TrEMBL record:
Residues 1-35 form the signal peptide. One of its GO terms (molecular function) is chemokine activity. It comes from Podarcis lilfordi (Lilford's wall lizard). It is found in: Secreted. Residues 38-98 form the Chemokine interleukin-8-like domain. This is C-C motif chemokine. Belongs to the intercrine beta (chemokine CC) family. SMART domains: SCY. It comes from the Eukaryota.
Length: 110
C-alpha cells in the first residue's frame, strides 16, 4: 500500500507539472495571438471624402502584412481615423497635398 500511494503522489505531481506546462503554453500562445490582433485593420472604406482641413496625417495599410485590404488611414485633428481606398481620386489628391505640405516643412530653415 505504501508503494502504491507514493506512485499515486508521484503521478499526481507529474500531472500537476504537465497541467502547469500546458497552461503556461496556452497563455503564451494567447499572448502572441493578442499581440498580432492589436493591429487595427481597416475592413472597409469610407464612402465620404474627407475635407483637407480636418486631416492631420495618414498611415498606409498593406494587404501583404497583417490586414486583408490595402488602405490609407487618415488621422483627423479630432483624433479619429478614417479608412480610405488608395485607388480613389480624392484619396490620391489628399496624399499629394499632404506630401507637398510635408515637403515645404522639410525645407523650412531653422
Amino acid at each position: 500500500m505504501h508503494i502504491s500511494s507514493s506512485v499515486i503522489m508521484m503521478t499526481g505531481f507529474n500531472m500537476k507539472n504537465v497541467l502547469l506546462a500546458v497552461l503556461v503554453g496556452l497563455l503564451l500562445l494567447l499572448g502572441m495571438c493578442e499581440a498580432q490582433s492589436n493591429q487595427d485593420c481597416c475592413l472597409s472604406y469610407t464612402k465620404t471624402p474627407l475635407p483637407r482641413r480636418i486631416i492631420k496625417g495618414f498611415t498606409e495599410q498593406l494587404s501583404s502584412e497583417v490586414c486583408d485590404i490595402n488602405a490609407v488611414i487618415f488621422h483627423t485633428k479630432g483624433g479619429l481615423k478614417a479608412c480610405a481606398n488608395p485607388r480613389e481620386p480624392w484619396v490620391k489628391k489628399q496624399l499629394r497635398l499632404l506630401s507637398k505640405k510635408l515637403n515645404k516643412m522639410s525645407h523650412f530653415p531653422f
